[in-house]
Design goal:
Mean pLDDT: 87
Largest sheet: none
Radius of gyration: 20 Å
Distance between the termini: 33 Å
Oligomer: single chain
Shape: globular
Strand content: under 5%
Structural class: mainly alpha
Order of helices and strands: HHHHHHHHHHHHH
Length: 272
């Protein structure tokens, strides 16, 4: 007699079966590797595309915002000021954009086999860490050119990257789940991400925001960008208050995104 296995939603506030996720760790790694291969398949320069995007953006910003608009850069050359922000922002924005469409782009897998669906948006945010690491080549070159010696706080940089990953994953949970039912989300995300960049101190310091600084603080990526820049350049002290606010907001986005994802996950195969 054949054995029948019934898969039911896990009960609980969040409903994540950590043991199950651990058992599927190799699948998560396989998805991540697959995304890397697909991303650079049949490209001439391969992984150097990870460098070109933030580098060319930095060049354009340096010309128009640094030279023409004369935006202050807290006493450091505008090129390295903007790139130190773009480095983390590019990771975040690309992670959100790709993870938001992760379920729809993998519809064939979702409708045929069972695996924890949350693996898909997670794999798309993890693969972008490779791009971030490659783009550090330009950062290291700029630091050598402008003779910047990183402060001891740079040892805390992995924590900033980790919480940025959590924030991007939390948004990815929300958007990928919503995009299954409402495909408008996939069209809106690129515009919203672009709009969000101007609400984040990537090309300008928080100090020029004045009375609007409170609004910037409500954007979790603000604290991470500022801490990321300070930990690399050492041009000013790390604002741990701002960083703490970003961490708290990130935890809220991550947990609520996880809860929402799990609450609608059982409908994915039917709707997608």
């Amino acid at each position: 007699m054949a054995q029948l296995t019934v898969i039911r939603p896990r009960k609980g506030l969040i409903g994540i079966d950590m043991k199950e996720l651990y058992s599927y760790r190799e699948l998560l790694w396989s998805f991540t590797v697959r995304n890397i291969k697909v991303r650079y398949k049949q490209t001439v320069i391969g992984g150097f595309w990870a460098i070109l995007q933030p580098f060319l953006t930095m060049v354009v910003f340096t010309i128009f915002f640094g030279k023409v608009a004369k935006i202050p850069s807290e006493g450091v050359p505008y090129a390295i000021f903007s790139y130190s922000g773009l480095l983390l922002w590019t990771y975040f924005s690309n992670s959100v954009s790709s993870s938001s469409t992760s379920l729809v782009s993998s519809s064939g897998l979702i409708s045929k086999i069972y695996f924890p669906r949350i693996i898909l948006p997670l794999s798309f945010t993890m693969v972008r860490i490779i791009d971030y690491s490659i783009a550090w080549l330009i950062m290291a070159g700029l630091m050598a050119y402008y003779r910047f010696v990183p402060p001891v706080y740079i040892l805390l940089l992995p924590l900033v990257i980790f919480f940025t990953w959590m924030f991007a994953s939390g948004i990815g949970f929300w958007l990928s789940a919503m995009n299954v039912k409402y495909r408008d989300v996939g069209h809106a995300v690129p515009f919203l991400v672009q709009l969000m960049m101007f609400m984040t101190p990537v090309i300008y310091p928080v100090s020029i925001a004045g009375r609007f600084k409170v609004l910037l603080m409500l954007n979790p990526i603000t604290g991470f960008i500022e801490a990321h820049r300070a930990m690399i350049l050492g041009h000013q002290a790390v604002d741990f208050t701002l960083l703490g606010v970003s961490v708290v907001l990130t935890l809220i986005v991550f947990i609520t995104g996880l809860m929402y994802f799990r609450s609608v996950e059982r409908y994915f195969a039917d709707v997608i």
